[in-house]
Write a structure and sequence with these properties.
The chain has one domain (about 25-230, about 240-430): Growth Hormone, Chain: A, CATH 1.20.1250.20. Helix content is about 75%, strand content about 0%. It has helices at about 5-10, 25-55, 60, 65-85, 90-105, 105-115, 115-145, 150-160, 160-175, 185-195, 195-205, 210-225, 240-245, 245-250, 255-275, 280-285, 290-315, 320-340, 345-355, 360-370, 375-385, 390-405, 405-410, 410-425. Helix 2 (about 25-55) runs antiparallel to helix 11, helix 15 packs antiparallel against helix 20 and helix 15 (about 255-275) packs antiparallel against helix 24 (about 410-425).
Length: about 450
Amino acid sequence: MYTSPAANSPARSNGQRLIPRQGKLAFFLVTGLFFLWAIPNNLNDVLIRQFMKSFEITRLQAGLVQSAFYLGYFVFSIPAALVMRRFGYKTGLVSGLILYASGTFLFFPAASARSYPLFLMALFVIASGLGFLETGANPLIAQLGDQESSVRRLNFSQAFNPLGSISGAMIGTLFIFSGVEPHAREIAEMKAQGVYDAFLQHETARVLAPYMVLGVVVLVWALFILRTNFPAVAGAQSSVAETKDGGYVRLLQYPSFMFAVAAQFCYVGAQVGTWSYFIQYAQDYTHVSEKTAGYLLTATLAAFAVGRFASSYLMKRISPAKMLGFFALVNIFLLGIGIVFAGWFGLIAILMTSFFMSLMFPTIFALGIKDLGPHTKEGASLIVMSIIGGAVFTPLMGVAFQFTKSMAISMSVPLACYAVVAGYAFWGSRFAPSPTLAEVRLSEVPND
């Protein structure tokens, strides 16, 4: 069995420089992207609840917010990899930021027309841009320095992602939620007075301001990146001839990588599904207001942030793969509590899952692309494509609720996802690459 030295001998990375000597500005600008793309991800959790009210739709229909969003990742990840393979990381990142901003500005016509399909299209465009950002930023950070410390470095940069998540949840709670939740009798009275449609239009328009401001910030960040010199990294840009060297087909000869794609698919599904319906779980079983539920969502994202920084530190002493497996098992236990003991006890258990899920995305990503050599960009794009799990498992939880009328039972979907993550950590991450490819290393690829 092959075991990656960096994955199982963390002490070796203690003497390695986490942040590269050269290109510090580029490193921090790219790290800032992890913050920026988390904001719309977690604004979605607020949008789901808001659209249920402003468009009068079911939980299953509201779950299409995540389906449209993560479909954008799925569709544009491979094109993003091809663009960056041909033109380099900087071009790909700037292109992603422009798409991201364009999607936020599409919220204006969607709100004016009060069209749910147009909102879904805007979210698709935003996620298309994020597909470029994640396809480029994750492998770039992993490669931008000593390879022995790549997992720790990616966890460090990803630690800024939950800060964006917290910001997104807080922005949504403060500026999108109005706190007005009319009951059936109040709705009937508003309809009788002829003011209900105006109320729904006002609730829909509340999403505008946060997205307009976000779009401007994203464009400014694109300008910063455009004007910054990026250091050369292995395989940052390849010729057309190089792209014909097996490409995606060659990745099939890396069983550990293929298992990583499956694990990431399930992890993202678990994360997105849990957060998407967290507010609903809180309101169903503790009967708190939407504002209070929004603040509780912010608390679970804060636990996620603490977990990211804590796990980045602990990986100096503990194998990333072992930590990944242990944290997955803990989340299976916590979700079991949330299912069996629905209420405040279960809510706290589900809240705590965010701490233990925090290391999963960057750890699976870094372990998955390790040793892919010249196929790193293709590998990164497939792992980013696996984010489609968020579009698959969130509606699946909605279907489970439609059949059982229990948000608690719906949490069995992310529970099953964590079982797959545990399998990858303890077993799949140790698969050896094909003997014909085992000698391929990033060091064999010349710098630009």
